[in-house]
Amino acid sequence: MAxxxxxxxxxxxxxxxxxxxxxxxxxxxxxxxxxxFFSDRRYKKIVRARRFAGHILFHFCGWSFxxxxxxxxRDRTNMMHHVRVLEGEMKVYRExxxxxxxxxxxxxxxxxxxxxxxxxxxxxxxxLKDPDTYTKLIKLDAADALADITKVTHADGxxxxxxxxxxxxxxxxxxxxxxxxxxxxxLRRRKLHIxxxxxxxxxxxxxxxxxxxxxxxxxxNEY
Length: 223
What we know:
0% strand
């Protein structure tokens, strides 16, 4: 691809990738050509490629929306829209975070020494849900990430009163209800024959505990 001088400039941090390299990785991820990317076409994969390129350059390379608009050849408000939409999508959709994970891995913006580990993969996904935590991906290595996880999973519940952290350690009430009767299928089956209870939660409160081994689930297993 033709590389302009501005495409070779990065932010003040030397280890960050050049814009030219970012675009090349985005082209590869979404199978888009340079001509398609800069054209007026609005096919889904082309729009997605522009969205990811703008997002990475803005959040990870320190580019302004004005500079983005000049390089990607779209107006400033269009680039703002692309970035904000992708921020919202990554909060909800795992597929978007998987694409971002793949690109960041090839750009060496995440710790390659642990990129194959399930817990690190889950931690990266969790950081990608919130724009305020994007910087952790660059500043923290795998050891820091593991320490960040254990602050929640091994916290003293008598001191840490956060409801979100409690769910991570203990699971949700639905999970505990499933543990009571053995499976979600069994919980629903029993509910159909007991009409005096208004909900599964009410039934689970009255059901007698049984000895079932159910794998504990926390947010680091939910990407």
